[in-house]
Predict the structure.
Amino acid sequence: MVKKETLLKKASRILTQIEKEKGIIQPQEVVNQSRPVGAPLHSHFQWDDDKAGEAYRRWQARLLIRDVSVKYSGTKVNAFYSVNVIIRGKSQRGYVSLVNVLSNKELKQQVLKNALRELGYWKTKYQNYKELLELVNYARLKKLEKKVNGKT
């Protein structure tokens, strides 16, 4: 497998070229250009259709789990959250219900840490949009980060 940084540099160059030629980058075009064995991004994709089909079904299951919602305190929220749990002595990544998250301090911490990571990602992604950054109360965010990370 190609080093991630090298792959991302190649991807950046190819995606920029696709946008220049087509006016937009569409995933199918990326796949089409990567299909030939000698294509720079070929190794990034799973070309064994059996393995790719199974991986796609797992992705569909993740989307299904993510899209199920419940009403909590009058607001529609996700019914399940992605966490690490120990089952029969083995750490496993999967989904648990909101009820279980809220009733288990460790699971709630995991969900809060993940939410803070997502906020950090969002902040970085949209840092050039002043209108959006003004929506975040950074003092409260820092306070919550310290609390969740045990640095009170």
User: Anything to note?
Assistant: The mean pLDDT is 90.
